[in-house]
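Hi support team,

I submitted a single chain yesterday and got back a structure, but I'm not sure I'm reading the token output correctly. Could someone confirm the output below corresponds to the sequence I sent? I've pasted both exactly as they appear in my results page.

Thanks,
R.
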Amino acid sequence: MYGWTGNILRINLSSKRINKETFDEEFAKKWVGGRGFAIKILWDELKPGVDPLGPENKLIVAVGPIAGIPAPNTGKTVVAAKSPLTGGYGDGNLGTRVTEHLRKAGFDVLIIEGKAEKPTYIYIEDDKVEFLPADEIWGKGSYETLDWLYDKYGRAIGILTIGQGGENKVLYAMIRSMEGRAGGRPGMGAVMGSKNLKAIVVKGTGKIPIAEPEEIRKIGLEDLKKVGEIDKKTGWSIQGTTGVLAWCNEVAALPVRNMRKTHHKDAWKIDGERLSKARVATYGCPNCTMRCGITILDKEGHKAEMDYENIGMLGSNLEIFDLAQVGSLNYMCDDFGLDTISTGGVLAFYADAIDQGAIDGDFKFGDAEKAKELLRKAAFRDGIGDFLAQGTLRMAKKIGKGSEAYAMHVKGLEISAYNCKYVPGMALAFATSAIGAHHKEAWVITFEINETERGSYGKEKAEKVVQLQRIRGGLFEFIVACRFPWIELGWDLDHYPVYFNKITGLNWGLEDFWKVADRIYALIRAFWVREFPNWDRQWDYPPKIWFDPSNADKEGLIAGKILELDKYDKLLDYYYEIRNWDKRGIPKKETMVGLGLEEEVKELEKYVKLE
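Hi R., thanks for writing in. Yes, this is the structure output for that exact sequence:
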């Protein structure tokens, strides 16, 4: 079998037992890698109702057949578990040297289970595994932890780690690697922390099994160079993802004041042009020639690596328009190991609830110093921070008084930095994302605003959401690679079957990938339904306030315009129809059987009746 090592490394932290397991080519072709491997393992091995922060939960670290090979933007790894934030399936990907090292160590997947008796880190070198005391780094931020491990093992090593947020089980804690690399928004860092696991260090010295090694090396290196040349020609990396901020402000889709507003006169102060001018360094993931990690000095003089989501959620959404202060909030999130999107959403919701008189407090929009104080308290669960550490869904349930309507989340995951009070297709994308409200799987907003009638609810929008989920949430999440060359530079999708086939020796076309993507989405939805058997379509609704006429903009481009619930429901019907799911949003029996999920159907039918 080429393209896969065929090996899984299972590590039990409770017993310190290590098992090397294998999978066959049928499993590899059915699930491919990354997100596919993760959801299949979690479905098979977790009983519904398992405590996400208990030793029975499993942390999956998974790569794919393209991951780590010399080709455009292949330095990505998927981390997954049952989410402590949402209670459903949770994952994320991040750029890390673990990608290449894990494959060279001879593994496609790590399964971390149990709980270490004391703070621990794992050192993996090929098939040797050591459990080492983490006393010197437990309680340290992720930057200091990375430096400590670099000093011990060298900077070329692969490392995944958590900060204090993960140690203290903040429900939106992430996993960190390299400079500003982070992944696992729905609390993957908290899962690591719950296991007393501070870091995973990987060193591999073997070779990745490739069907045509010389050919893929030649093509891959040439294509890396071509992508770099396109980037230089287009100038995309000058602003990177932050270039979208000015556009969102212009088209009234910017998150401002807990998404109550869609644009702001001071947004230019924190836009991509200002960020690029303040740049002191640029970082990127392995195998990347379009590096987007623009780094500035924050208010305290730290190097803060920024992107659009950070600035949108920690800047405009909090009405903080001092770039250095936004940098400080971003740096703190990275160091503590907190998701910047959820942190911004939590702080904005808290300020909004105080504004509405639903809760007492002294935090106001625009108060950067207070935001930093609260962020620190959240990371350590200190005082009010223990409340903030729970995320907006739980906060709103405890506050009550109508606050649930403006808690900006879907399924418990805070919404990314696109205000969709009048962008129905993107609202659908958030609502149907596999992990909760995340933009990465179907960033349909530019298509919707630039190429369609913005306020329409036609089937073409649902079709576009599904198409993008197959590509962004499917293909790129299971092969595993970064989507930016395709999205930002127009790098044709047809390149990816070429890489895949040269590596695996198979002869797949894009249609083969789409079936795998649909299979993964169906099983992820089945995982959610098994956890929440009272499932209905309301789980796929965006926040109520986006349908509230009193929340419409009073002036500007979309004055008086909001989402319409009856039309959104029709759009959601189109989405279910395309996926062949029922009106509740549950895959039909025939759909799952057609995707090769016969055994999974039998399991799901124990909890819910399928059409």
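A quick pointer for reading it: The domain at 7-203 is CATH 3.60.9.10 (Aldehyde Ferredoxin Oxidoreductase;  A, domain 1). Let us know if anything else looks off.

Best,
Support desk
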